[in-house]
Specification:
Blueprint lengths: L1 H20 L2 E5 L6 E3 L5 E3 L13 H9 L3 E5 L13 E5 L15 H12 L3 E5 L8 H8 L4 E3 L17 E3 L11 E3 L6 E3 L4 E5 L5 E8 L2 E6 L21 H15 L3
Parallel strand pairs: 1-4, 1-5, 5-6, 6-13
Antiparallel strand pairs: 2-3, 7-10, 8-9, 11-12, 12-13
């Protein structure tokens, strides 16, 4: 009986330790706050949301994070080191311009200071940009520049229509981050300039950096030229015969971020 009690106690403690050690990924809902009217005319949030199963959502990426042991969270207010204290990975995706939000929350100097302080203590920041016509670049770069990275106004991987998917192709063969994906799709994206400690992780056919990485204190920063892993392009609309591996790349990316995280 005592042995059974000890075994049960061990199981409870072991399972509790697994839950306690689970990493948290927090998705910004402050700098990106797009809304539209639903079928009833009500103004509702959309675009890059964990629970959004439409083509514009991050539900598939969220599922990948969950399968890799992450807890999903979101932040509706301006980030501070205190608010991010329990977060291991923080995603900022496609900050709003007035075109998407009449009253956008721009990244300010205080935000830069707070986020950089959190990264320095061991956080992993992921910055998803877009082409310059669809993302608020100037304020986003105030944050990126701290880590030696800069989103440009260049248009890369322009895809005219669905008959030209190959124009958005990028080879990931033998890339140290993308260990299972061989070829990914990123369309209408910017480029990333790097300096200092920041280094290119992935380049396109034209030689432009589309994913970059930098260490900052105990933490890490990853810059990506597009929010390319939303539901529409995690193989949702991608022609099967073209062998795009965005689904595999999502897993590869999440596993890399998990390895970078402090826990």
């Amino acid at each position: 009986m005592k042995m059974l009690f000890k075994a049960c106690t061990f199981s409870v403690l072991f399972c509790s330790s697994i839950v306690a050690s689970a990493q948290t990924v927090t998705l910004d809902y402050f700098f990106n706050r797009e809304t539209h009217k639903d079928k009833n005319g009500k103004e509702v949030r959309f675009h890059y949301l964990w629970g959004e199963r439409a083509m514009s959502g991050f539900s598939i990426l969220g599922s990948v994070f969950r399968k890799e042991g992450f807890k999903l969270d979101s932040l509706e207010t301006a980030p501070t080191a205190a608010r991010l204290k329990e977060t291991d990975v923080y995603l900022i995706v496609d900050p709003d311009r007035p075109k998407e939000n009449p009253k956008p929350n721009y990244i300010q100097a205080d935000d830069v200071t707070e986020i950089a302080a959190w990264v320095k203590q061991g956080g992993v920041l992921v910055m998803f940009a877009n082409d310059s016509a669809n993302v608020e670049v100037p304020h986003f770069n105030k944050l990126a520049n701290v880590f030696g990275m800069h989103f440009t106004n260049d248009m890369q991987n322009h895809v005219v229509d669905d008959n030209h998917f190959e124009d958005g192709a990028i080879s990931t063969k033998n890339n140290p981050v993308f260990k299972t994906a061989q070829k990914i799709f990123m369309k209408d994206i910017c480029a990333i300039e790097t300096k200092g400690a920041a280094k290119a992780v992935l380049k396109n056919k034209a030689g432009a950096t589309v994913i970059a990485h930098a260490k900052h204190g105990k933490g890490n920063v990853v810059a990506i030229a597009d929010p390319w892993l939303y539901d529409e392009y995690v193989n949702g609309r991608l022609p099967k015969e073209m062998n795009f591996d965005n689904d595999k790349a999502a897993v590869d990316l999440v596993r890399w971020l998990k390895a970078l995280a402090r826990k």
